[in-house]
Specification:
single chain, 283 residues, alpha/beta, Rossmann fold, 2 domains, five-stranded parallel sheet, 8 helices, 19% strand, disordered C terminus
Amino acid sequence: MTEPSLPTEIAIIAGKGAYPRLLAESARAQGVKRVVAVAFKKETNPVIESVTDDVTWVYLGQLGAMLDALVATGIKNVVMAGQITPTHLFRVRMDIKLLAVLKRLPERNADTIFSAIGDELNAIGIELLPASSFMQSHMPTAGVLSKRQPTDEEMNDIRIGFHVAKATSDLDIGQTVVVKQGTILAVEAFEGTDATILRAGKLGGQGAVLIKVAKPGHDMRFDIPVIGLHTIKSLRKAKIGAVAVEAGKAILLEREKIIRNIDALDIAFIVVDSLTSPGDQKQ
């Protein structure tokens, strides 16, 4: 049965990975009758066509075409789901609409760019819903999800990384930090989580700890921390020893597969509560 507060139809601005598909499936399961998507050529997985009623394909950078496609659906609620390859933002051909939006921004980062796009949507009568909409079952609560518990040394690194990641994300630098034996190996910048993990692996070798948090005062409409199967591949390559994410503020895509892979790699995976010391979460 549909919750009274949930819309009966939604449009998805669909980026990379499994997120758009899982969002569409979850929305259907919760009673949404009509699900459409605007997808990006060479970015969005074509599987989105099998789980939605209609898909309009546009080129990345064509903001005007995206807005026109959303207006044409007649749907007033939109969710952003899935990443865009970061470097593509500097290599795509931008239309006049996007160039005008970016020109107004004194600082360009995920927060300012997506906020500006949210404003453009609002200007045409479309509400940008939280990226967590319909995805609550994919957002874990505090506790250890893996078979292996974090060691005391890993918990100390988690404590350090948690506070560093909160500081760097508050500066719009990045949400991910990798720590080993009290040393910060890598801080995420524009390259994204996977590149950060691999860089840390080259620097510190086996046994580092990955911490991924939400920015203080995080705008839940976009850029929610996400862990997916692609992230697991990077963890394996970098020989990461433990992972920590923030309770209620991170999405695990295909959770059962993630935990199964985490356990196979003997990685400790813990979800910490932002209101308490990470060291208190060990079970």
